[in-house]
Each structure stands twice: as structure tokens, then as C-alpha cells.
């Protein structure tokens, strides 16, 4: 039996990853830049054993179906190949999220699985190699290997596409991100399907690629200067540009729901009233608000004029991947 366990935190992109140039290797069309957060994380343990006759995957105590297990198996194959070990595995993942709905992320999940495999199979991977491996599970997972501000260099091959820390002199410790949970009944378009459709059909996709290269530079300059307004403005603008590409896809789609718009408008209003805060959204209706730690209490109070306390969760900068002791050694 080969056992390993690891914890990874989720990350939210300030400059988004949106589009792949290689689906199998998960090579992105553009660089992206994120902030790793402390409030949401995944702990995953993996055991490889000669005695197992198939891969199994349990998430939050529930054994997962064939489709979810196939994605994990595909990833395990990469780890097995690296180790030269043919055994099946059992994967057990637990998502730690402050409130139930819609905040679990594939980024923390696949990063934790990469870490657990590294431990179990004693692969001895460096952080850079862990980032490359996690990327193969889910693109955004390559950024969750690291804490704080992280840039994913798109690269051009398996070994040249990985994330690394953006030097920030601990500025992220002064920042926060408030999550506004929006419940809506719409059927989801996964980020994987959404970006694929956009790359293939959106008239705005070329414009996105031009803009994102500039936005990355602006964001990095803002981090170097600890310029919150500049970072916030480029974060909000970049998110809007990503979402604009979906409206020009065929068939068109959007992740926005009426309450997402309500949240965006509220953030703009709070800003007009003098508190610096900026929104971003990913492949779902929830709205995330980048702000400074010193303003969190006032911004939460203002957001509570429109949203319930249960809808609001505050996160701060989080750490990179951590390996954990297995509690029970079978
Ligand atoms: C909108 O990393 O979930 O959150 O690589 O297909 O697994 P796959 O996609 P995923 O996409 C994340 C897209 C995003 C933006 C971002 O996190 O950069």
C-alpha cells in the first residue's frame, strides 16, 4: 500500500485563464494571474494498492459516479506512469468550504490530488513539477500549488507551462476577497465546455487574447507598486472581458444571473461612496469582491443592504500546497 495526503487552497483568478490551445496537455491560450485564498480548501488522500481492482473516488464521504471517477483515473494514470507503478487507487477528498453552495473548486481538488500522489508514490516532485502535474488535472489547479499572488506562464509544451509566485513583498496580506453567493436555477455550462465553445466560435475571442496580454502586465505592475486601485481596475475589467466573449459565442451563453448584476451594481455603488472594491466572476453566477482588509467590515455592512449574511463569506490570502500525515495508516 502506498499512501499520501495533502491540502491545497483554492485560488481566484484576477486575470483569467480562458481557452486552451491543447486540450490533452491543458496548455492555455493565455497567461493568468490569481490570488490563493485561505477560506476554501481540499484535503485529499490517496492509497495505491495491488489489492484494488479499480480506481474509486469518494468526495465528502460520497462515492462518486463513473464520470467523476474517470477524470480522477485519467489523472492517476499520469502519476502511475511517472512512478512506474500499475496499481489502482482509492482517492478520498474532503472540501472545506464555509457555506455549502457552489464554492468547491476543481483547482484546490486537483492540486491536493497532485500533492497526495507525490507523497504516496514518493515522486519527489519540485513545486514547479507539481504545478505541471496539477495542470493536467485542471488548468487552474496549477496555480493552487503556491500561496499569494501566482502567475501561470502559458508555455508551449508540458514542461514549459506552470505557475509561479509573483513577488509581492507580502502585500496580499493586506487584501481580502468577499464572496457573494448567488443562488440561481440555471443549468451550468462548465468552465471546460464554456471556454471550448468560446475559443471555437466567439467573434470576440481574438480581442480577448490581445487584451489579456496587456492586463497581465498591468496587474503585475500594480502588485509591484502595491497599487490597489490599479489592481482592482484591471481585475474588474479583465473579468468583464472574459464574460463578454461568451455573449459572442455560438450558441451564446452567460454565467450572469439577475442577482449577479445586482451584486456588480452594488459593488460599483459602494465604490462610488468611497470604499475601494472591485468585482470578478468565474464560470458561475457568484460574485467575488476584491478589497483591502481594512475595509472588510464596512463593505460587508454595505453588502448586507442587498444580501443576507449567509450569502457573504470573506477570505484572505492563503498558502500553497501542504502535505499532511495520513491519519490512519492501513
Ligand atoms: C473561469 O481550470 O476549471 O475559473 O482546465 O478545463 O479544468 P479546466 O478549467 P478550469 O477553468 C477555470 C476558468 C476560470 C478562470 C480561471 O480560474 O483562471
Can you describe this structure?
By secondary structure, this protein is an alpha+beta fold. It has one domain (1-330): Ribosomal Protein S5, domain 2, CATH 3.30.230.10. It is built from eight helices and 14 strands. It has helices spanning 66-83, 106-120, 127-137, 191-201, 205-225, 228-247, 258-272, 296-303, and strands at residues 2-15, 20-22, 27-28, 32-49, 56-59, 62-63, 88-96, 149-153, 162-165, 175-180, 277-280, 287-292, 312-316, 322-324. The strands form three sheets. Strands 1, 4, 5, 6, 7, 8, 9 and 14 form an eight-stranded mixed sheet that branches. A four-stranded antiparallel sheet has the order 11-12-10-13. Strands 2-3 form a two-stranded antiparallel sheet. A hairpin with an 8-residue loop joins strand 8 and strand 9 (162-165). Helix 2 (106-120) packs across helix 3 and helix 5 (205-225) runs antiparallel to helix 6. The chain starts with a strand and ends in a 6-residue tail after the last strand. The structure holds ligand DP6. Residues 13, 16-17, 26, 32, 106, 138-140, 191-192, 282-283 line the site of ligand DP6. Pfam families: MDD_C (PF18376), MVD-like_N (PF22700). Keywords: ATP-binding, Lipid biosynthesis, Lipid metabolism, Lyase, Nucleotide-binding. Its EC number is 4.1.1.33. Residues 8-163 form the Diphosphomevalonate decarboxylase-like N-terminal domain. It is an enzyme of class 4 (lyase).
Amino acid at each position: 500500500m502506498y499512501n499520501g495526503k495533502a491540502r491545497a487552497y483554492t485560488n481566484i483568478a484576477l486575470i483569467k485563464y480562458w481557452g486552451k490551445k491543447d486540450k490533452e496537455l491543458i496548455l492555455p491560450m493565455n497567461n493568468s494571474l490569481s490570488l490563493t485564498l485561505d477560506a476554501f480548501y481540499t484535503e485529499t488522500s490517496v492509497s495505491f494498492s495491488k489489492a484494488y481492482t479499480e480506481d474509486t473516488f469518494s468526495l465528502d464521504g460520497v462515492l462518486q459516479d463513473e464520470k467523476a471517477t474517470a477524470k480522477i483515473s485519467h489523472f492517476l494514470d499520469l502519476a502511475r506512469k511517472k512512478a512506474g507503478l500499475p496499481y489502482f487507487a482509492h482517492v478520498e477528498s474532503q472540501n472545506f468550504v464555509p457555506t455549502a453552495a457552489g464554492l468547491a473548486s476543481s483547482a484546490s481538488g486537483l492540486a491536493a490530488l497532485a500533492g497526495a500522489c507525490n507523497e504516496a508514490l514518493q515522486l519527489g516532485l519540485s513545486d514547479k513539477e507539481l504545478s505541471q502535474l496539477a495542470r493536467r488535472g485542471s488548468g487552474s489547479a496549477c496555480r493552487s500549488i503556491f500561496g499569494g499572488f501566482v502567475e501561470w506562464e502559458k508555455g508551449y509544451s508540458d514542461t514549459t507551462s506552470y505557475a509561479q509566485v509573483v513577488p509581492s513583498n507580502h502585500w496580499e496580506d493586506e487584501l481580502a476577497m468577499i464572496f457573494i453567493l448567488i443562488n440561481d436555477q440555471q443549468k451550468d455550462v462548465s468552465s471546460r465546455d464554456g471556454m471550448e465553445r468560446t475559443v471555437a466560435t466567439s467573434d470576440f475571442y481574438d480581442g480577448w487574447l490581445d487584451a489579456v496580454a496587456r492586463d497581465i502586465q498591468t496587474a503585475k505592475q500594480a502588485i509591484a507598486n502595491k497599487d490597489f486601485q490599479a489592481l482592482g481596475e484591471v481585475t474588474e475589467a479583465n473579468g468583464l472581458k472574459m464574460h463578454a466573449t461568451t455573449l459572442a459565442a455560438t450558441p451564446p451563453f452567460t454565467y450572469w444571473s439577475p442577482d449577479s448584476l445586482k451584486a456588480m451594481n452594488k459593488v460599483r455603488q459602494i465604490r462610488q461612496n468611497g470604499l475601494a472594491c472591485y468585482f470578478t466572476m468565474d464560470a458561475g453566477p457568484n460574485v467575488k469582491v476584491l478589497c483591502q482588509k481594512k475595509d472588510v467590515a464596512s463593505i460587508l455592512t454595505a453588502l448586507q443592504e442587498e444580501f443576507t449574511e449567509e450569502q457573504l463569506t470573506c477570505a484572505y490570502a492563503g498558502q500553497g500546497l501542504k502535505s499532511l500525515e495520513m491519519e490512519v495508516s492501513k
